[in-house]
Amino acid sequence: MEVKKISGNLSVSAQILPEDIEELAKLGYKAIICNRPDGEGADQPTFAEIKKVAHKAGLEAVYIPIVSGRVQDSDARSFGDAVTSLPNPVLAYCRTGTRSATLWSLNEGAKGRPLPEILQATKDAGYDMSGVVRRIANGGRTPTDVADATHDIVIIGGGAAGISVASSLMHRKKDLDIAIIDPADVHYYQPGWTMVGGGIFDAEETVRTMGSLIPEGVHWIKAAVSAFEPDKNAVILDGCRVVKYNRLIVAPGLKLNWNGVEGLVETLGRNGVTSNYRYDLAPYTWQLVRGLKQGRALFTQPPMPIKCAGAPQKSLYLSADHWYRNGVLNNIEIEFYNAGGVLFGVKEYVPALMNYIEKYHAGLKFTHNLIRIDGPAKIAWFNKTDADGNSEVVETRFDMIHVVPPQCAPDFIRVSPLADAAGWVDVDQTTLRHKTFENIWALGDVMNAPNAKTAAAARKQAPVVANNLLTDMGVVSGVAHYDGYGSCPLTVERGKIVLAEFGYGGKLLPSFPTWLINGQKPSRLAWLLKEKILPPVYWKAMLRGREWMAHPEITD
To answer: Which residues are catalytic?
Structure first.
């Protein structure tokens, strides 16, 4: 934790942890302002966690969440009012401290403080506010007629989809002018978190620095996107900077809406409440599984669409298998609460999965959507819907619960001209080109094509987008087609996997002959693929533009 003083009564810092609060109190701080929304990062404690420890230490805590890149004038005023009303000195934090410094700068500018003083104070603290100068001077208005940067191809997002498509482009033409926009310092191999929660992988195996993965020759703009102006070929970044493009690829992933379940953020990571959908919580899942000898274990799945639809039940299978192998399964009542109406969306895989549901004596609760949780009381509430659409709230207790949060497109996507009515980027499901803006493509979890949202899907989509964008540029010829391929390695027990591979409409799209891997039956070879082969394929092939078993179909 590095605290940076900006004024006599305010300091800012990057994300703090609950264990930092005691030190802040010793340093004399009386109040904390959180400017980072819950659920923004996979390794981020919630504000409720921070607030609880702060109050115990005698510090006040205020939540003024600011979506990265979306600092409004009213936010700056609220921030200024909080600093004035709270006992001083105050510490404000966000992911890096930049949002907090920006709020202070805008508020001070609104009060008439000379601009050079603002810039000097933030510079001394290690924050460059030069990108916000025009906004301070022009009342928040962002001119888009002059760009801070211009690139032929701009990619939004440095996740699996964004880096893969950048590498696929560079693999085809090495002298392209490409920029990736992403504020994150680290990149996660999220498919590995199920294995972390099952005690197979260590969490550290699933993370790399972002800088080590950006392809050589690709510019990295380390910032968050605020808005799009596609009619002007412009992307607006945090600090009101403007990046212009000739062609745009949108791949920022989706948003985990932890606040979509009442009471969830206050109890995550404690009271037996966990989730493999967060980097720092997957180890807690394994801790709970190892520690549970008797009681009630619940596993939840929210309404679709979600990232990796099989992941909620993967956690169930690996947990139950551990209890089975350790002779305590008969002492544990397992229930799977699924907001949907079927165990798995492709019927051919259901019989194999049902064999394991029966083996583990797991109860299936379909059309049950988690709406509220009380961690200390160990009670969860679900909205149960019948075939006629009637609903009722049912209550159940637990000793352990694995929660999968509701999921949606990121805020800056949902409110943009790129989105459909549901908030997802509106693309042609075959070419992945935007339906309205012809120089924009999308891939990964953020688009509205009806495919499974998995890393395996992004692996197949990246060469499609790369080819079609370069065809549009006249570099290559032919149009590539995406068939909706997605893969879900369902870890039904330690050492065996049901390898589900399918495309649009649930069409089976196996990668291997049935004599080698029959995806409709549990397979040890499929487990070897998941445990030993896919991680290096991800890091060393997919993210490097080596399109192993991912070459797209191309037509003239």
So the answer is: 308, 488
